[in-house]
Amino acid sequence: MRRYFARKIGIYIVAFWFAGTVDFLVPRLMPGDPVQSYLSNFIGANTTVTQYRAMYSAFAKAFGLNVPLWDQYWHFWDGVLHGHMGISISQSSLPVTSVIRGAAIYSLILLVPAIVLAYVLGNRIGAMAARRKVLDNTVLPIGYLFQASPYPWLALAVAFYLGAVAHWFPIGSGYAQNLLPSWTNWHFIVSVMYHWFLPFLTVFLVSFGGWAIGMRSLVIYELETDYARYLRALGASQRLVRRYAYRNAALPQLSGLAIQLGTVIGGNVVAEVVFQYPGLGHLILQAADSQDYFLLMGIFLFIIIGVLVANFVIDIAYVMIDPRTRLAMQGAQA
Amino acid sequence: MSANPGPARAAGSSTPAPVATGSPGEELDELPSAAPAPQGPGERLEKGALAGAQAAPVAPTPTLAAGAPAVRLGRQRWEFLHYALRNRKLVFGFSVELVFVLAAIFGPLAAPYSSAGDSSSAGVPLKDQCAAFFCASGMTTHPSAHHLLGMTYFGGDVLSIMLYSLRETYLVGFLGALFAGIIGLALGFTAGWRGGWLDDILQLFTNVVITMPALVLLIVIGAYVKIHSPLFEGIFIGATSWPWVARAVRAQTFTLRERDFVDLARLSGKGGVSIVLKDIAPNMASYLFLVFILLFSSSMLLSVSYDFLGLGPTNVVSLGDMMNSAMLWSALNLKAWWWFIPPGAAMALIVFGLLISNIGLDEVFNPKLRES
After folding, report:
1. Phi and psi of B22, rounded to 5°?
2. For residue B277, what are the domain limits?
3. Minimum Cα–Cα distance from B358: chain A residue
4. Domain ranges in chain A?
5. Cβ(B99)–Cβ(B368) under 8 Å?
6. What is the per-residue pLDDT for B269?
7. Around A256, how many Cα atoms within 13 Å sit in the side-chain half-sphere?
8. Which positions in chain A touch B16 (Cβ < 8 Å)?
9. What pLDDT was estimated at residue B114?
10. Is B143 inside a domain boundary?
11. Which CATH architecture has domain A96-333?
12. Running DSSP on this structure, what letter comes out for residue B129?
């Protein structure tokens, strides 16, 4: 038990280090000079070479790029661990951390409910499909169709039919344009919810089908196992057998959730772009377009931290729903 | 620890079936008593089941095992065809695929409007056809007899552009699957065959890569280097989508290397590489084939997302590109559904066909799954 968590946390630390190092190395190893491209914004027709050189060295110094790579690496981690990620050049020179904080709320209220609801409902419906032929014949093909649909297409279709044609929900932006973002303003919150629904529906739909299909096959498989047969032979009610099957099937589904996180985040980025929803996915693409490297690196690390935290929460949930781990824990203490 | 790969078919979400499926739960591995290994469930039709068939496929694929006589091999091929042709799922999936592959190969020759319908060549991405904005009608057009799937804002014939795009999408999907397969197989075989500290390190590496959100990583890399070729996009997709393959192959190699025929091969003085390639790999040939199909479909789906976000190759048209330009040129507000629905539907059908043929192939390869 303790070993289990120690090992998990070890993996997460290595993953964080890996992500940080990628974040650090990509801009430095890739062809192209960020300082140079940044400077091109300031250069006029009458900028002389000496002026350019002076500006270049000033900016290189300001960005800490004038010291050896190892020192830069050290500074990078020092900054990351202290929460200093530099300033965002495209978002009116605000600190990267506060820009991220502003957008992260939108992404979190989109992702967390969509992931949890898709997981819970998908599992329920999948388990129901495993026992009803009629439901099975509809859930299975629809599930596969959702699974085969490209994210952008699903997002565009939802935006088109429910937004542009039916006018049930707005598309574009995260709140009405005549409101100022303020989480204490009731009108603003209502407006956010109204704009939130379609992107939420998209992210929900793209993962829902997979969970239903997976749960269906897992329950069918569990119903064929020895313990299920034995239970039936003992005369247990069908309901009881299915409940056991469902609980056993829930374990691999939960480890699947951890693996799916990266994919769901990808779907989330696409949905945010289609709906112009002001979350992190939208922001990171803007940062990439405007060559706002500090913001880009900051968002990347923030997303990695989010994924790792979510992984850890899933690990804890796994221990909670799997009695065998709890028993092992008590055994270890005794 | 590897003896119990656990039911790996933790389903998963919409896209890459594989990502979801290949989870011989690291979690499970480490728990005191892991979930039961799937042995031969009655009706596992899902692709999830395929990846989960960790232990199972070993049994039902005796075909190429240690030197089966050629005569028997021949008979089994016929048997394979016999079951393949009777499997409705396989026939359906294969027919869908055949239609699209033919369209990809011959489509550009038969496209009603060569070079995407306007004066510029098809090689020019739609988003760069702004020049056409002035010379073309400047209005999207409904599907009609002349333009079966309508026209884009730039006067491009949607059907023709789609026919050109199919090649691109197939190519990237194939390259992505190829690279992911190579990396996954190499790491999976090495970890499973060698075991020990090398296995531990490779496992750690696999677990780290699994946590990386590929799309976000590509956005970061794409900010510094533009992807110019389908080859690069394929390499990138391959480099991020191999982990579940490595896990699954590793688990299978673990179970296989304890078999008698492997011991025999060892006694005969064969080297490790040769045993893995000639004795172990053929025993999971059918499984690896299914893995490749899943990789292929997930790679295509990923490439559509990348192209849609404008991260794909800049000098070719692809299905994702079409949806990208549809969104950029407000096809939503123009209510020009024919601009983005057909390319996405084609993609969905291609992947749907692949998934269904995958289920069918699983049933053909695995006698336990055949419907009587």
Report:
1. -80, 65
2. 160-372
3. A144
4. 35-84, 96-333
5. no
6. 82
7. 36
8. 263
9. 55
10. no
11. Orthogonal Bundle (1.10)
12. G
Contact (CB, 8 A) for B137 and B156:
no
Is B51 domain-assigned? Answer: no
Helices (H), B226-330: 230-240, 243-256, 260-267, 272-275, 285-308, 319-328
| Cβ-based burial of B315 (10 A; exposed 0-12, middle 13-18, buried ≥19) | exposed
Selecting from A165, A208, A259 the residue whose C-beta is nearest the C-beta of B23 gives: A259
pTM value? 0.78
- Residues paired with B117 in a beta bridge: none
Write out chain A residues lying below 8 Å of B293, CB-based. Answer: none
Q: How many CB atoms lie within 10 A of CB A195?
A: 23
Q: How confident is the model at residue A32 (pLDDT cuts 50, 70, 90)?
A: low
Interface test with A, best of B1, B166, B216 (most A CBs within 10 A): B216
The alpha-carbon radius of gyration of chain B (Å, integer) is 23
- Which tokens in the block code for residue A294? 């500090």
Interchain CB distance below 8 Å, B14 and A287: no
CA distance B210 to chain A (A): 7
Q: Which residue of B has its CA nearest to A302?
A: B216
Is B39 within the bounds of a domain? no
Residues 6+ apart with CB under 8 A from B300: B169, B170, B172, B173, B176, B347, B350, B351
Give ipTM to 2 decimals: 0.83
Domain holding B173: CATH number? Answer: 1.10.3720.10
**Residue of B254 and B58 predicted with greater confidence:** B254
With left for phi above 0 and alpha for psi between -120 and 50, is residue B371 left, alpha or beta? beta
| A315 contacts B335? CB cut-off 8 A | no
A117 pLDDT tier (thresholds 50, 70, 90): very high
Question: Domains in chain B: how many in total?
Answer: 1
